[in-house]
């Protein structure tokens, strides 16, 4: 990198002015020396209160995103740390919570709806409409074929046992309630969550 | 009022004069209470996340330490020791390792490059990569074996005590994250007072030798430990019982340094003299030349 | 959790047994450290492994996996023998004095009512003797031989310290020291908190492990008080919420039961849910069941649920088996009885027992849909990864959909933590690429299904066509709309007993006390009523004020039920309403009403002299030392060996294992025996990882990059295994090849004179993500479940270990 000392000083000086360094220990010391301190990286990022996605301590977290929520700035999560106001974690995080940034930006996040045909050795990218239309069709086919209206004794039972669902453990209560409504309206009984493992 | 360069600095490597440091600022410290540490590595995680460091993923080699040692992108690691006392009782001694921010820093004393290592008035010892020539003397000078030289840019790296966070009034990332409060951060005076309360509690719980690790051999440190076995610091993965700055550094200080500096670059000396005489509040052509020369030197190493 | 995370700091003794709080819940564990520092508390850890929790404990005792009931029954025996019992509490707040039916008994490992043919119990004798009014008979003097206390004494009398040591492998002096520490909290102003998790649940006797501890806590008077309680540290961020909202095969929101085949009509269904008080003057709060049910159906089916159609009772599916849990689902799948499966944020290939069976089952589906932010192993189950996931994709005809969802950072909504706090969180960034929220995906599926049924008809379309679905954008309901739906609102003016209007038509409810059973109110989940009222989003409250710094923070978010922070808090005060612990009171009777820092778990104006028991959900108003017919194995816990165990059951060799454990015939053949698999395997999390998620996060992959097992030094020496060597760990279901960590923290236990070696199996690896590829510990685990909850037995099973050459694949 072509960076001589003078340009470094200039850059740092700009960063210094922008990041209001000086609260403790450094003051606005001479630029040549203040150049040492890395600019505080969160100064004008946007801060959003959220909850850690892992265990049930439910630590409060602060998510910092690029940009100030102006229309032309696309927010991207750049840092996550503990919410000091939260009564349980009081700003602390565990090694998982402190690394939430890396799960948000994991290279293995699924980016597009993907479809694997029977016998195929790969996933192919498909549209949401294709995926949802196809899935709904498959579900209806199975439901119409295997729905049990009455049991052997003639009792009305209205259940569907050949398609099942495992519900999430980190989705919201609102997602959960909507999921419950939908699944039960289908008559689905093979329905469970991750409470046991 | 315009600040002068040196008011907030206590020391600067390879610089003959101690800066005037007329400001009185509270010394800060990190207190690592080993007796409440659960070895969760939140400090390692937060350190990497905050400092945007991602060391290489290693293998499992039969220890919980990962990475296995400090490295240029891993400025702190937990060290785990399974230790059985004389009666056969097992203790799992877990210590967060990293820069101790000595009051009398061996790294800074050993460093031949002007301003590559500084000590701020608040006690933080920081490496200024800009000035680092990658010579590795800091590694030799450190009684705790902390600095590591990067193979990528040939510069020395270690914990900054999150000088960027402390500068804006925040605690270091590791101290903030620590789930059990095993890492506390504040004025050194407060940390010392709190440590004595913790030591009383540990003694009540049967740890007769509990104590504070703030070794006088390096003038005290700005990272201190509360140890249950303060009589035997080396139980904790080789924490030095009596840390000493290598005699090499003493020789370097007294005799070798001027010679070595002269050998290093005449222009550097010129710049240095200039700094002593005039002060570098303006960047002079000599400074520029010196910096360029150091940069060139760095490229060769 | 009965209590809050911060309330742990009020404990005098913290018992971590059946869990590893420091590693699995580090930020909650800080309150244990606070208890030690500011309350001089003692931390006691009982665990097969010397964990990171043990590393900061004041006292550690080892225990053989799967023997907790023997240990805790021994503790009960100790407490009763030493009279370390909170007498007022036990006499007045538990069913110790109630008299049990004459037919009840226990012999040779079986309780009365065993039916060998059905392999199950007839539980009729497991109940109280009733008087002519239908109330349970009692003997407050404890003279009656069949009062619960005397039956309990008799039941636990077999668990002497010698027997405990013989079964558990815990040295006798260590067992007695733990007893002594536990017993110290029998004093009315002292409390012990029990912190447990899957170390207790993941056994064939999981539910009874927890019951045993709850009984210890009742004897000590530690339930309902500050610093006490039974604190289940739940594993996932919203698994409490998912369970509260009823996402289990046998549940409806708010712990209402799904109807069964045996309940063909609404009247039949309600018959067993009258919850008539078993003692005079009890609250028996479930008597309001009908209000909760009707309001739920009004919420789900709107105007289509009417009194005339029994609130759409027929539209609810009826269960022909008690529960369609995951084990049953995969058993059905593997038998070719299932067509399709949707995994929403759940990775069963790695998470469920006997990975080979799970993989085989998934391959028999016609289609599989996986909704997840990450590429899970389940979505890629058909891929060949050598020994780690052997497969021939060309032979797998399952059609697979991998649907990208948003993650926590990209959505609004509420999550319920272990302490029942329902907390709102806010979206920070947009969905990446084409990811969609689960709400949008589920809505997309439903809307398509509804359109097809409307257009073409099909099997029983009524519930689909009539589902209450009116949102601002029907393709994407907002979390706010759904939160209000969960809370509930008035469909007509709601009046109180005096005739005064408490709610006008259309208003949001303040809480479940306003629910009606005449169809004039809705509520999607009655226990969550109060989350979003006319005062706004109560879950978003951020006032952390904490009176007396006692750890309640009652104005932070919302805690169900009714913003109550400590359950059963009436039991923190004596019969006159005076707090047992005057230094940390929760509520007290001021002469006209209950007041204090928590919302009373009691009718606020009911005087202590009214004789109403503090456990208001129970028909007798009392906590149960005797479980009546609520547990499948029996009303008292009994020690049964794990389904795979190297030791016989020393108490009753003929009934060695839980007689009613969840076992499918096809899995029985896959159980191993100690001659081939002589060591006890146990699986667990490491603090650096969360399940199979964080291996996708680079920092966590750096912190623990690779699969390993933990082996004690003694066994390692025997087997010639050196530090970091490659080993092959096998069970009768498969094998894992990985590195060994040889440690002093796993010592052989002396069980009946023989050594018991435990092999520790961290779970976190698989074949997707940033960490190194691994097999996953569930390659080894047995497909067998707890008798009550169907939780798989991950914590105790048989394995062998051998030094290995290195990775095969």
Which helices and strands, and how do they pair?
The complex is a heterotrimer of chains A (197), B (301) and C (809).
Chain A: H1 5-19, H2 31-34, E1 46-51, E2 60-65, E3 77-82, H3 100-104, E4 114-116, E5 124-125, H4 128-146, E6 148-150, E7 156-159, E8 163-166, H5 173-186, E9 191-192
Parallel strand pairs in A: 8-9
Antiparallel strand pairs in A: 1-2, 2-3, 4-5, 6-7
Chain B: E1 9-12, E2 28-33, H1 42-50, E3 77-84, E4 90-97, H2 106-110, E5 117-120, E6 125-127, H3 137-141, E7 148-149, E8 156-157, H4 163-167, H5 173-177, E9 183-187, H6 188-204, E10 211-213, E11 223-227, H7 247-264, H8 266-277, H9 285-300
Parallel strand pairs in B: 2-11
Antiparallel strand pairs in B: 1-5, 2-9, 3-4, 5-6, 7-8, 10-11
Chain C: E1 13-17, H1 21-24, H2 26-38, E2 42-46, E3 59-61, H3 68-81, H4 87-93, E4 106-107, E5 110-111, E6 114-115, E7 120-121, H5 148-156, H6 161-168, H7 172-183, E8 192-196, H8 198-201, H9 206-220, E9 230-232, H10 239-244, E10 251-252, E11 256-257, H11 266-271, H12 289-301, H13 326-334, E12 340-344, H14 348-351, H15 355-362, E13 367-372, E14 399-404, E15 413-416, E16 421-425, H16 438-456, H17 462-465, H18 479-487, E17 494-495, E18 501-503, E19 532-533, E20 536-537, E21 558-559, E22 587-589, E23 594-596, H19 665-668, E24 679-684, H20 698-703, E25 708-712, H21 713-719, E26 726-731, E27 734-743, E28 749-751, E29 754-756, E30 758-762, E31 797-803
Parallel strand pairs in C: 1-2, 1-8, 2-3, 8-9, 12-13, 13-14, 24-30, 25-27
Antiparallel strand pairs in C: 4-5, 6-7, 10-11, 15-16, 16-21, 17-18, 19-20, 22-23, 24-31, 26-27, 26-31, 28-29
Would you mind describing this structure in some detail?
The complex is a heterotrimer of chains A (197), B (301) and C (809). Chain A is an alpha+beta fold. Chain A has 5 helices and 9 strands, in the order H-H-E-E-E-H-E-E-H-E-E-E-H-E. In chain A, strand 8 (163-166), helix 5 (173-186) and strand 9 (191-192) form a beta-alpha-beta unit. Chain A is elongated, with a radius of gyration of 26 Å. Mean pLDDT of chain A is 86; it is low at 1-35. With 301 residues, chain B is α+β, with helices and mostly antiparallel strands. Chain B contains 9 helices and 11 strands. Chain B has helices spanning 42-50, 106-110, 137-141, 163-167, 173-177, 188-204, 247-264, 266-277, 285-300; strands at 9-12, 28-33, 77-84, 90-97, 117-120, 125-127, 148-149, 156-157, 183-187, 211-213, 223-227. Chain B has a 4-stranded mixed sheet. In chain B, strands 1-5-6 form a 3-stranded antiparallel sheet, with no helix packed on it. A two-stranded antiparallel ribbon of chain B has the order 3-4. In chain B, helix 8 runs antiparallel to helix 9. The longest helix of chain B is centred in the C-terminal third of the chain and has 18 residues, at 247-264. With 809 residues, chain C is an alpha/beta fold. In chain C, the strands form 11 sheets. In chain C, strands 25-27-26-31-24-30 form a 6-stranded mixed sheet. Chain C has a 5-stranded parallel sheet with strand order 3-2-1-8-9. The radius of gyration of chain C is 27 Å and the shape is globular. The model of chain C has no long low-confidence stretch (mean pLDDT 97). Classes of the chains: A alpha+beta (197), B alpha+beta (301), C alpha/beta (809). At the A-B interface, helix 1, helix 2 and strand 3 of A face helix 1, helix 4, helix 5 and helix 9 of B.
């Amino acid at each position: 990198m072509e960076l001589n000392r003078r340009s470094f000083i200039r850059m740092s000086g700009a960063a210094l002015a922008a990041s209001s360094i000086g609260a403790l220990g450094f003051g606005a010391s001479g630029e040549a020396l203040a150049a040492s301190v890395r600019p505080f990286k969160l100064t004008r990022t946007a801060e959003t209160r959220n909850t850690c996605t892992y265990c049930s301590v439910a630590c409060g977290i602060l998510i910092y995103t690029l940009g100030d929520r102006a229309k032309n700035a696309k927010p991207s999560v750049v840092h996550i740390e503990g919410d000091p106001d939260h009564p349980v974690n009081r700003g602390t995080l565990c090694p998982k919570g402190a690394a939430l940034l890396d799960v948000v930006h994991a290279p293995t996040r699924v980016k597009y709806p993907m479809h694997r045909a029977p016998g195929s050795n790969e996933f192919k990218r498909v549209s949401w409409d294709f995926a949802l239309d196809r899935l709904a069709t498959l579900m209806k086919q199975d439901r119409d074929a295997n729905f049990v209206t009455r049991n052997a004794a003639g009792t009305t039972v209205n259940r569907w046992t050949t398609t099942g669902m495992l519900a999430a453990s980190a989705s919201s209560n609102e997602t959960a309630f909507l999921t419950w409504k939908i699944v039960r309206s289908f008559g689905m009984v093979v329905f469970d969550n991750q409470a046991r493992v | 009022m315009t600040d002068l360069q040196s008011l907030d600095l206590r020391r600067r490597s390879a610089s003959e004069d101690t800066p005037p440091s007329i400001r009185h600022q509270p010394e800060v410290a990190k207190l690592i209470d080993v007796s409440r540490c659960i070895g969760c590595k939140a400090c390692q995680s937060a350190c990497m996340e905050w400092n945007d460091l991602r060391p290489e993923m290693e293998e499992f080699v039969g220890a919980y330490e990962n990475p296995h040692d400090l490295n240029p992108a891993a400025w702190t690691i937990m060290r785990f020791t399974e230790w059985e006392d004389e009666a056969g009782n097992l203790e799992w001694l877990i210590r967060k390792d990293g820069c101790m921010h000595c009051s009398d820093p061996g790294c800074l004393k050993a460093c031949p490059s002007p301003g590559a290592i500084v000590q701020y008035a608040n006690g933080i010892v920081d490496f200024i990569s800009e000035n680092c020539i990658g010579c590795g003397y800091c590694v030799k000078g450190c009684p705790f074996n902390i600095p590591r030289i990067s193979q990528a840019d040939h510069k020395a790296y270690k914990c900054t005590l999150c000088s960027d966070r402390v500068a804006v009034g925040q605690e270091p990332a590791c101290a903030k994250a620590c789930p059990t409060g095993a890492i506390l951060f504040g004025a050194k005076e407060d940390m010392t007072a709190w440590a004595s309360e913790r030591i009383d509690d540990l003694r009540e719980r049967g740890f007769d030798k509990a104590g504070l690790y703030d070794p006088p051999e390096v003038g005290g440190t700005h990272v201190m430990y509360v140890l249950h076995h303060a009589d035997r610091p080396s139980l904790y993965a080789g924490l030095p019982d009596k840390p000493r700055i290598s005699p090499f550094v003493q020789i370097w200080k007294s005799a070798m340094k001027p010679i070595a500096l002269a050998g290093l670059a005449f222009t550097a000396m010129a710049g240095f003299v200039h700094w002593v005489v005039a002060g570098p509040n303006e960047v002079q052509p000599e400074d520029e030349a010196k910096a360029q020369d150091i940069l060139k030197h760095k490229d060769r190493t | 959790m009965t209590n809050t995370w911060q309330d742990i700091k009020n404990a005098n003794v913290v018992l971590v047994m059946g869990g590893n709080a420091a590693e699995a819940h580090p930020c909650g564990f800080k309150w244990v450290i606070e208890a030690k520092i500011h309350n001089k508390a003692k931390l006691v850890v009982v665990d097969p492994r010397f964990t990171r929790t043990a590393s900061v404990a004041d006292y550690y005792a080892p225990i053989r996996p799967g023997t907790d009931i023997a240990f805790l029954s021994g503790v009960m025996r100790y407490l009763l023998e030493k009279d370390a019992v909170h007498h007022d509490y036990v006499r007045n707040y538990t069913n110790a004095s109630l008299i049990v039916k004459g037919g009840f008994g226990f012999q040779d490992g079986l309780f009365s009512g065993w039916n060998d043919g059905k392999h199950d119990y007839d539980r009729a004798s497991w109940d109280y003797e009733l008087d002519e009014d239908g109330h349970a008979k009692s003997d407050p003097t404890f003279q009656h031989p069949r009062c619960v206390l005397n039956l309990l004494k008799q039941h636990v009398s077999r668990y002497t310290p010698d027997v405990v040591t013989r079964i558990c492998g815990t040295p006798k002096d260590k067992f007695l020291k733990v007893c002594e520490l536990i017993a110290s909290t029998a004093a009315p102003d002292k409390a012990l908190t029990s912190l447990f998790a899957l170390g207790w649940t993941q056994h064939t006797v999981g539910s009874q492990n927890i019951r045993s501890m709850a009984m210890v806590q009742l004897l000590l008077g530690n339930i309902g008080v500050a610093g006490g309680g039974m604190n289940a540290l739940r594993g996932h961020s919203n698994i409490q919420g998912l369970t509260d909202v009823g996402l289990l095969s046998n549940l409806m929101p708010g712990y209402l039961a799904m109807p069964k085949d045996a309940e063909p009509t609404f009247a039949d269904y309600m018959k067993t849910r009258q919850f008539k008080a078993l003692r005079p003057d009890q609250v028996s709060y479930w008597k309001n069941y009908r209000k909760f049910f009707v309001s739920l159906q009004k919420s789900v089916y709107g105007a289509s649920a009417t009194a005339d159609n029994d609130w759409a009772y027929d539209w609810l599916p009826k269960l022909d088996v008690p529960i369609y849990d995951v084990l049953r689902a995969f058993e059905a799948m593997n038998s070719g009885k299932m067509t399709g499966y949707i995994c929403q944020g759940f990775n069963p290939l790695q998470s469920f027992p006997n990975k080979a069976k799970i993989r085989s089952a998934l391959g028999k589906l016609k289609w599989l849909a996986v909704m997840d932010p990450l590429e899970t192993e389940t979505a890629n189950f058909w891929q060949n990864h050598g020994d780690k996931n052997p497969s021939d994709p060309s032979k797998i005809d399952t059609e697979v959909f991998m649907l990208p969802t948003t993650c926590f950072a990209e959505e609004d909504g509420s999550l319920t933590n272990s302490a029942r706090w329902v907390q709102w969180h806010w979206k920070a960034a947009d969905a990446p690429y084409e990811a969609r929220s689960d709400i949008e995906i589920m809505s997309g599926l439903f809307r398509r299904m509804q359109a097809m049924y409307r257009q073409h008809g099909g099997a029983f379309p009524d519930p689909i066509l009539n589902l209450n679905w009116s949102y601002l954008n029907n393709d994407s309901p907002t979390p706010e709309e759904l939160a209000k739906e969960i809370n509930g609102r008035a469909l007509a003016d709601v009046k109180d007993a005096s005739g005064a209007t408490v709610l006008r038509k259309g208003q949001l409810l303040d809480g479940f006390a306003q629910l009606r059973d005449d169809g004039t109110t809705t509520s999607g989940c009655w226990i969550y009523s109060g989350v979003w009222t006319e005062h706004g989003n109560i879950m978003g409250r951020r006032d952390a004020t904490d009176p007396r710094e006692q750890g309640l923070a009652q104005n932070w978010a919302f805690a169900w039920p009714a913003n109550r922070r400590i359950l059963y808090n009436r039991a923190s005060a004596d019969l006159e309403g005076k707090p047992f612990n005057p230094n940390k009171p929760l509520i007290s009777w001021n002469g006209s009403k209950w007041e204090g820092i928590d919302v009373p778990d009691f009718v606020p104006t009911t005087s202590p002299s009214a004789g109403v028991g503090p456990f208001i959900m129970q028909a007798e108003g009392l906590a149960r030392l005797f479980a009546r017919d609520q547990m499948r194995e029996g009303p008292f816990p009994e020690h049964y060996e794990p389904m795979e165990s190297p030791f016989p059951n020393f108490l009753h060799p003929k009934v060695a294992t839980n007689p009613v454990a969840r076992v499918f015939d096809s899995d029985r053949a896959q159980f191993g025996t100690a001659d081939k698999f002589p060591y006890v395997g146990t699986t667990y999390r490491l603090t650096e990882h969360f399940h199979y998620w964080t291996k996708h996060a680079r920092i966590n992959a750096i912190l623990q990059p690779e699969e390993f097992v933990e082996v004690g030094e003694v066994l390692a020496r025997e087997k010639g295994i050196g530090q970091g060597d490659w080993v092959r760990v096998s069970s009768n279901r498969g094998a894992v090849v990985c590195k060994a960590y040889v440690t002093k923290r796993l010592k052989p236990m002396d069980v009946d004179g023989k050594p018991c070696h435990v092999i520790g199996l961290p779970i976190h690896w698989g074949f997707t993500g940033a960490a190194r590829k691994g097999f996953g510990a569930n390659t080894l685990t047995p497909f067998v479940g707890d008798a009550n909850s169907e939780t798989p037995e991950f914590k105790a099973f048989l394995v062998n270990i051998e030094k290995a050459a290195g990775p095969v694949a």
